[in-house]
Amino acid sequence: MAPKIHSSADARRLARRRLPWMVFDYIDGAAGTETGAARNRAAFDAIDLTPRVLRDVSKRSLSVPLWGKPTKAPFGISPMGMCNLSGPGADLMLARLAAREEVPVGVSTVASTPMEKMIEVAQGHAWFQLYFSGDGTGTFKLVERAKAAGYETIVLTVDVAEVGRRPRELRHGFTMPFKIGVKQFIDFALHPQWSISSLIAGKPQMANFLMDGYDFDRTESRAKADFETLKRLRAMWPGKLVVKGVLDVDDARMLKAEGVDAIQVSSHGSRQLDSAPPPILKLAEIREALGADYPLFYDTGLRGGEDIVKAYRQGANFTFFGRVLQFAIAAGGEEGLRQLWDVLKSETSITLAQVGETRL
Questions:
Q1: Number of helices (H), then strands (E), in the chain
Q2: Is 266 within any annotated ligand binding site?
Q3: How many C-beta atoms surround the C-beta of residue 33 within 10 A?
Q4: Is residue 299 a known part of a binding site?
Q5: Which is more confident, 359 or 195?
Q6: pLDDT of 28 strictly over 60
Q7: Would you say 356 is a known binding-site residue?
Q8: Residue 302 host element (H or E)
Q9: H or E stretch covering 301
Q10: Which of 101, 103, 204, 278 could form a disulfide with 112 if both were Cys (CB 3.0 to 4.6 A apart)?
């Protein structure tokens, strides 16, 4: 029986107890001294929501339009690498959730499950997240593969010119694929529930690179990507193109001018640049610069329903949860994920009622 989860903090606390230290710190960790993550949280906490009274808020809806279609929740699932580390089959749990809630699940370039299987299980509710790396040869092979698999949206992540240094995972010797030494062996032995279930399921792999002509190196430089790269991608991709990892207003204006369909304001969960400004504050600036009608998405630092309402008030058209969903899986498997998702929807709905609104 899955433990009762009442908040994302519950999910994180339980996950910390159940996951090997190496895996927990890979999921939870942020760049540098992690002050960036703390400042983003502080920025969220500093945003007030003023209660309004004596308004009929008895009939509330969490549905929002996304590419012209209604969703059942005002948030989706961020692309996250190697999700199956949080629990065997985690990727497919997220895909099933996306299908049920009619929201997008981001399928990471470094997902543990092939992109073809993910979009099938998600019943089409999947966006492929793309990293540019090396000279781009393998990158554009992945684009063609996504097109053949039926993806209609690609999310180009642009805030990883080089992989950020995250000391917590480095201290544990975290690498992809895994290299097991004495330290890691002891860590796994002290967390037998996770270790046995993972052993039975098989070691998580970066499934999208199990193809001819592509050897992926997580640490390979991604620094060659530029606006010419974007133009090439725009020319070859007929569907929706989202650019994720934008915090600068001038960058946002240039991306809009290049025909990008939406921008995702994000600091990569504070995992890249410790000194990055709080994305929740940059969201409002970019909204003002691009006008009311341009699609803006948001991730980074979301922990509950009040955060969702704050993000929409700052100008988001849609939002995405990330690591808290992995914590829920680590805490209670698919049932834990369902519990937390329901909590997040309930928190959002209650917050709407408190501030006198019926829709986001």
A1: 14, 10
A2: yes
A3: 11
A4: yes
A5: 359
A6: yes
A7: no
A8: none
A9: none
A10: 204
155: helix, coil or strand? strand
DSSP 273-304: -TTPPPHHHHHHHHHHHH-SSS-EEE-SS--S
Listed by start position, the domains of the chain span 8-354
Alpha carbon distance 271, 27 (integer Å): 10
Eight-class DSSP state of 268: G
Q: Please, what sign has the CA dihedral across residues 195, 200, 203, 208?
A: negative
Show which residues are catalytic. Answer: 268
Cβ contact 98:105 at 8 Å: yes
Q: How far apart (Å, rounded) are the C-alpha atoms in residues 135 and 139?
A: 8
Classify domain 8-354 at the CATH topology level.
TIM Barrel (3.20.20)
- Cα-to-chain-centroid distance, residue 197: 24
79 annotated ligand-binding residue = yes
> In this structure, are residues 355 and 348 in contact, taking their beta carbons and an 8 Å threshold?
no
3-class DSSP state of 129: strand
Identity of the amino acid at 104: P
Cα distance between residue 151 and residue 125, in whole Å: 9
The residue whose two tokens read 């809806």 is: 61
Report the C-alpha gap between 62 and 259 in whole angstroms: 29
Residues written for the chain: 360
Q: What is the pLDDT of residues 159-187, one digit of tens each?
A: 998 888 999 988 887 776 667 777 887 88
Q: Which residue has the tokens 């009311």?
A: 292
Rounded to an integer, what distance in angstroms lies between the CA atom of residue 240 and that of residue 147? 11
Check the annotation: does 166 bind a ligand: yes
Is 359 annotated in some ligand binding site? no
pLDDT tens-digit readout, 63-77: 999 999 999 999 999
Three-class SS of 50-114? CCCCCCCCCCCCCCCEECCEECCCCEEECCCCCHHHCCCCHHHHHHHHHHHHCCCEEECCCCCCC
d(CA 223, CA 130) in angstroms, rounded, equals 14
Residue type at 271?
R
DSSP codes of every residue in 183-221: HHHHHHHT-HHHHHHHHHH-----GGG-STT----TTS-
